[in-house]
Amino acid sequence: MSDTAVSSQSRLAGNREVPLPVVRVPMLDQKRELFAYEVMFHRHVGDEAAQMQRVLSTLADGALTRLVRGNRTFLTLSRELLLDQTDVLLHQPRFGVLLQPQMADDAELMERLIRMSQRGCLLMLDAGATDPHGTAAIEALLQIVQFVRLDAKALTPELLGERARELHERGIWVVAGQVDDHTTYHRCLELPLQAIQGRYLLIPDQVEVPVLSANRLSLLRLMRELQENNPGPVELGDIIRNDAILSYKLLSCVNSAYFGLPKQLKSVQQAAIFFGVTRMRNWIFTMALGGMDDRPPELLRTALIRAHMCEQLASTMPRAQKEMAFTVGLFSLLDTLMCAPMAFVLEQLPLVPEIREALVGNRGPFGPLLEQVHAWEAGQLGGQMQPQQIQRMAGIYLEATQWADQVYAFADPKTQAVAA
């Protein structure tokens, strides 16, 4: 990791140099572009007040802004912080606060929230399944928020549609949360929603007969070539020699200031000698998947985060297994990226059994690593791990997000088109 990465991670750690246990969860608009992030916190007993203080510290010094790449972001803050220490939010126009319906009954807090709204702070009512028009108190909340999030899992499709339309007509932007399957997602596309949030992004849509498009077939052929016959540095260079865009993206990334190489690498062969064949093959996978411009950008970013996290969680394993762990994380969303069942996609690739077992059933040496990453994404580690383990996971996650954002900047075809 570069000095820049270490410095940024230290700032995210806050004053005590302990990593802030957060996960950023995207909300996508109906074109599948990023609308906002929600930053969620992994909590364990006894640390909530101190953790909330550190959240405000990272807001003040810009570290949290870098984590979310300057995008619109919503946080859940304690009552005490909302009453006493929200001035920092007034200087962070892209950061907002998630509010609960019961806050409407807290007169002191409502007075503070009204002042925050008047000064332009972003406020989102997390209404869930609560009727937004149920009481006069909640109606008062609706007068000051710009956004309302509805629970698509708890509401019937009819009630979700009715409430979304009512709020939309009032000029309030509506987010559907807990959208965890594609049936619900496709219904949401027909509603006046500004954003959709949920696990649907990370699971493949069900198809009776998978049909791979020409560009996906081409990508699978490339991935098969990279796996077959154990290619060396020369062979890797030959495999992608005719793909000028892929070669350009790959070399631009590895030569970027982020990685701080002692000298510029001028060919894929040189890069494979410097980094090793397996690592370079993983980089080619990464850049090739980045060319899938018909998939949501946040989906590939998540695959990159998983890859880096799995590699770091495998830090005590031999180097070859660490690099296989990277492949497991990256390929864990291959079915969603390819819009086809995982078993079908893996039939096209000559992967080693350890990788295949992890991808199909979370088995083998890498299965537990994937399970840890999944639990972290879902915010479900608090009761399973000791504070020291959570801190380690937090550091790995923060480093992985920074790495993924940097790499995606080179893998994204839109970025490359602008650069050209």
Biggest beta sheet attributes: 8 strands, mixed
The radius of gyration computed from the alpha-carbon positions, rounded to a whole number of angstroms, is: 23 Å
The total tally of domains equals 2
CATH homologous superfamily heading of the largest domain: Hypothetical protein af1432
What does it look like?
The structure is a single chain. With 420 residues, the chain is an alpha/beta fold. The longest helix is centred in the last third of the chain and has 25 residues, at 387-411. The protein has an eight-stranded mixed beta sheet. The chain is built from 21 helices and eight strands. Helix 11 packs across helix 20 (387-411). It is 53% helix and 10% strand. Helix 6 (136-142) links the parallel strand 5 (122-128) and strand 6 (147-151). The radius of gyration is 23 Å and the shape is globular. The chain folds into two domains: 3-202, EAL domain (TIM Barrel, Alpha-Beta Barrel), CATH 3.20.20.450; 214-419, Hypothetical protein af1432. It has helices at residues 3-13, 48-60, 63-67, 79-84, 107-118, 136-142, 157-169, 182-188, 214-227, 233-240, 244-254, 268-275, 277-289, 297-313, 319-331, 334-338, 342-347, 353-361, 367-377, 387-411, 413-419; strands at residues 22-28, 34-41, 73-75, 95-99, 122-128, 147-151, 173-177, 195-196. Mean pLDDT is 87; it is low at 1-11.
What is the gist of this entry?
The protein is α/β, with parallel strands linked by helices.
Please write out the topology.
Elements: H1 3-13, E1 22-28, E2 34-41, H2 48-60, H3 63-67, E3 73-75, H4 79-84, E4 95-99, H5 107-118, E5 122-128, H6 136-142, E6 147-151, H7 157-169, E7 173-177, H8 182-188, E8 195-196, H9 214-227, H10 233-240, H11 244-254, H12 268-275, H13 277-289, H14 297-313, H15 319-331, H16 334-338, H17 342-347, H18 353-361, H19 367-377, H20 387-411, H21 413-419
Parallel strand pairs: 2-3, 3-4, 4-5, 5-6, 6-7, 7-8
Antiparallel strand pairs: 1-2
Helix pairs in contact: 1-20, 9-13, 10-12, 11-20, 12-13, 13-15, 13-20, 14-15, 14-20, 15-18
